[in-house]
Design a protein that fits this description.
By secondary structure, this protein is an all-alpha fold. It has one domain (19-88). 79% of the residues lie in helices and 0% in strands. Helix 2 (20-47) runs antiparallel to helix 3.
């Protein structure tokens, strides 16, 4: 519990400041949202042949865009996580000159 209290106190002293881990979680949350959107486009695309009001070309474009967004978010998440854990690792271990 002591560690939790220290973290809370640090957050209270610096309102609005988020940890690097918050950025990773935000990117993961965005990715989940885009994956949900991708599944929607995929489902509508499967229904398009029977539904005249659904434009297969537009749905394919939306699905491609969602996949590109997923790739971009994953790259950002990996880069952010690697930088975060690299910085944290440097803080924990002393540097040898």
């Amino acid at each position: 519990m002591g560690g939790r209290k220290g973290k809370t106190a640090e957050t209270e002293r610096c309102p609005g400041r988020s940890s690097g881990l918050d950025a990773v979680v935000e990117l993961e949350t965005l990715r989940l949202g885009v994956e949900g959107k991708s599944l929607l486009w995929h489902t509508l695309l499967a229904l398009a042949p029977e539904q005249a009001h659904l434009d297969e070309s537009q749905l394919t474009d939306l699905l491609d865009r969602a996949r590109n967004q997923i790739d971009t978010l994953e790259l950002l998440r990996r880069t952010t996580a690697a930088a975060l854990f690299s910085v944290q690792g440097n803080r924990r271990s002393p540097r040898v000159s």
